[in-house]
């Protein structure tokens, strides 16, 4: 069983976390060499996560820092997150899609990624979801090894599924043709 | 601009369509050589689509046939469907995920698949979704050619994204470890 390092907790994300999470989203995208593709604004991110029409849920990994001003106050900062939403599989039914999972570089190999996945699995069980899906870049061997250790299967390799996207310009052309 | 053949209409799916849609889901899975993976029951499908916590939305393609009993009644049957739900991209934001799109083989090459995509694009524009995602089996050249003509991009080939899945047994192990 994985224990979290001292001072690190995993909790549900709230609206006040959005700015920090968006910073971590951009860190992850930079690692993936895709930072220019991130077009999200903070306002939209807050609205989509915590407004009237929810598009995603958040788990965050928070590290409580020790006071550095002698006042006894602890500053907490976010060092990781998982962004997910419900999905549906015509094979198994209720599922969860994990859009992003990220632990800041300085906090890797301390069981935080595993703890995020464990928390997500608990959500899945509680919501009766029989499947968790996500995507990973094929060159990210370190991540793939980790995912495979927790029981994930590369269904692109194993079953030949390829991912496709249609973006805004093409969507609007289709809608108006 | 695509015009649907006579007697064919695309509309929003309703709870009474579930039995027929599940039949079409299984037809598609059989075509993909994956019928043994379909574990959905009709009750669960109805609940997940039309219960208190909906997991998906449906578009259905209905064909009206003329009465063959002289009573003047028209029998309608479903000959295609699109099953989709909202998704979130940390690149672009609000998105739609198209889990299934299917037109029965006898009705192919009549613009019905295109019309389903057009309807989906209209939903996307209405909901301010700037991305549509879906997966295709890499050997399904006919489908891939069609999707690419609509403007879809294979991001497994182009950007090296691989799909991963964690199934129920592994999820439960993770949740309880």
User: Distance N terminus to C terminus of chain A?
Assistant: 55 Å
Topology order of chain B in helix (H) and strand (E) letters: EHHEEEHEHEHEH
Continuous helix count of chain B? 6
What class do helices, strands and sheet pairing of chain A give? alpha+beta
Strand order of the largest sheet of chain A: 1-2-3-4-5
Count of strand segments of chain B? 7
Roughly how many Å is the radius of gyration of chain A? 18 Å
pLDDT averaged residue by residue of chain A: 91
What proportion of the residues of chain A form beta strands (DSSP E)? Answer: 25-35%
Tally of separate helices of chain A: 6
Let me know the number of strands of chain A. Answer: 7
Proportion in β-strands of chain B: 25-35%
Mean pLDDT of chain B: 91
Task: Write up what this structure looks like.
The complex is a heterodimer of chains A (177) and B (177). Helix content of chain A is 34%, strand content 31%. Chain A is α+β, with helices and mostly antiparallel strands. The longest helix of chain A has 15 residues, at 112-126. In chain A, 37% of the residues are buried. The mean pLDDT of chain A is 91. Chain B is an alpha+beta fold and 177 residues long. Chain B has a five-stranded mixed beta sheet with strand order 1-2-3-4-5. The model of chain B has no long low-confidence stretch (mean pLDDT 91). The interface between A and B is large, with 74 and 74 residues. Strand 6 of chain A pairs antiparallel with strand 7 of chain B, so a sheet runs across the interface.
């Amino acid at each position: 069983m994985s224990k979290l390092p001292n001072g690190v907790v995993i909790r549900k994300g709230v609206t006040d976390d959005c700015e920090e999470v968006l910073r971590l989203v951009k860190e992850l995208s930079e690692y993936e060499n895709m930072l220019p593709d991130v077009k999200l604004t903070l306002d939209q991110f807050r609205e989509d996560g915590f407004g009237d029409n929810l598009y995603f849920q958040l788990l965050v990994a928070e590290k409580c820092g020790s006071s550095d001003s002698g006042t006894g106050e602890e500053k907490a900062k976010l060092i990781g997150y998982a962004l997910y939403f419900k999905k549906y599989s015509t094979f198994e039914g209720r599922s969860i899609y994990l859009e992003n999972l990220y632990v800041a570089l300085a906090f890797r190999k301390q069981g935080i990624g595993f703890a995020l996945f464990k928390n997500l699995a608990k959500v899945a069980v509680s919501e009766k979801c029989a499947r968790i899906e996500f995507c990973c870049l094929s060159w990210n061997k370190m991540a793939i090894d980790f995912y495979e250790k927790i029981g994930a299967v590369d269904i692109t390799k194993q079953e030949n599924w390829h991912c496709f996207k249609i973006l805004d310009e093409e969507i609007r052309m289709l809608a108006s043709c | 601009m695509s015009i649907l053949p006579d007697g064919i209409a695309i509309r929003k799916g309703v709870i009474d369509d579930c039995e027929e849609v599940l039949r079409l889901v299984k037809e598609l899975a059989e075509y993909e050589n994956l019928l043994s993976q379909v574990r959905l029951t009709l009750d669960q499908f109805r609940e997940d689509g039309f219960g208190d916590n909906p997991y998906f939305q449906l578009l259905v393609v209905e064909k009206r046939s003329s009465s063959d009993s002289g009573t003047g009644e028209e029998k309608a049957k479903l000959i295609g469907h699109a099953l989709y739900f909202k998704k979130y991209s940390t690149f672009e934001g609000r998105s739609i995920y198209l889990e299934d799109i299917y037109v029965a083989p006898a009705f192919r090459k009549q613009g019905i698949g295109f019309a389903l995509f057009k309807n989906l694009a209209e939903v996307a524009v209405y909901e301010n979704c700037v991305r549509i995602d879906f997966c295709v089996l890499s050997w399904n050249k006919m489908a891939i050619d069609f999707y690419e003509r609509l403007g879809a991009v294979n991001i497994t080939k182009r950007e090296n994204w691989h799909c991963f899945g964690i199934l129920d047994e592994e999820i439960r192990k993770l949740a309880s470890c």
